[in-house]
Write a structure and sequence with these properties.
This protein is an alpha/beta fold. Strands 1, 2, 3, 4, 5, 6, 7, 8, 9, 10 and 11 form an eleven-stranded mixed sheet that branches. Helix 2 packs across helix 3.
Length: 249
């Protein structure tokens, strides 16, 4: 089953409480610290466009790219004709838009979806290809010391809207020699009108990263790391910071 297939229809409902507005403002602050005049933005793994629309509201002209047609369909449906927004289907490991941007972002762990060394290198080379001279990239990812300390747990999430109840069970399996966690998602979609239940299953593979390996990776692309911190803080990454964000030039 491909990732972000039928699951994409319920993605925004599952993340209805995620503070995309506050997170986009936080990323905007990170960007402004290094590039106050930044205007054009390329967003890899834009998904259903939740950040994309927030960045457009903050004044960026944003080109969102995702390799899931289903996620992009949701993004286009929800974005209407917001000025300064474009979407393309493509794989961040290989796409070449022949255009450079002030900022390239990939948010909510898109980098962690690149699981092999080659995937990670290819994705970061694509990032570099699309950053204008003097431009920056902002990427977040799962942080190894936190993943290994806290250990991935089984989680159950229940959400609903006027039509549906969705129960999602996430069962992780840790592969410590590969730096990968496989998460088996089973989502049960119950219609409130006829009580029928539809089940959707997907397995997502997430790579977690450590600073020394990232330093080698940045060097080989090459990209210069300007900062690294625990997501939504200005704290040094630690065993409590599952999500970490790096700013690169
Ligand atoms: C967890 S979702 C995040 C979506 C969006 N950034 C958000 O925060 O709602 C990860 C997204 O990355 C996309 N993705 C993963 N690997 C990709 C790749 N190599 N190229 C393009 N998109 C990718 C998936 O299709 C999915 O939409």
């Amino acid at each position: 089953m491909p990732v972000f297939g039928d699951y994409s229809k319920y993605y925004d409902l599952l993340y209805q409480d995620k503070d995309y507005e506050g997170e986009a403002r936080y990323v905007d602050t990170l960007i402004k610290k290094y590039l106050p005049a930044a205007h054009s933005m390329l967003e890899f793994g834009c998904g259903t466009g939740r950040y994309t629309r927030e960045f457009a509201r903050l004044g960026y002209s944003v080109h969102g790219v995702d390799f899931s047609e289903n996620m992009l369909a949701e993004a286009k449906k929800k974005s209407g004709n917001i000025e300064g927004l474009r979407f393309s289907c493509g794989d961040m490991r290989s796409i070449r838009l022949r255009e450079e941007f002030d900022v390239v972002v990939a948010l909510f762990h898109v980098l962690s979806y690149q699981t092999t060394d080659q995937d990670v290198l290819d994705a970061l080379k694509t990032v570099r290809e699309h950053v204008a001279p003097g431009g920056i990239a902002v990427l977040d990812f799962w942080y190894g010391p936190a993943v290994l300390t806290q250990q991935p747990q089984v989680r159950v999430k229940e959400v609903s809207d006027g039509n549906l109840n969705v129960t999602r069970i996430a069962q992780p399996i840790l592969y410590p020699n590969e730096n990968i966690v496989r998460i088996d998602y089973d989502a049960f979609i119950e219609s409130k009108t006829d009580m029928r239940i539809n089940k959707i299953s997907e397995s997502h593979y997430m790579r977690y990263f450590f600073i020394p390996e990232l330093s080698l990776i940045w060097k080989s692309v090459p990209l210069e790391m300007l900062s690294i911190e625990a997501w939504m803080t200005d704290d040094k990454p630690g065993t409590n910071s599952w999500a970490v964000v790096a700013v690169l030039r």
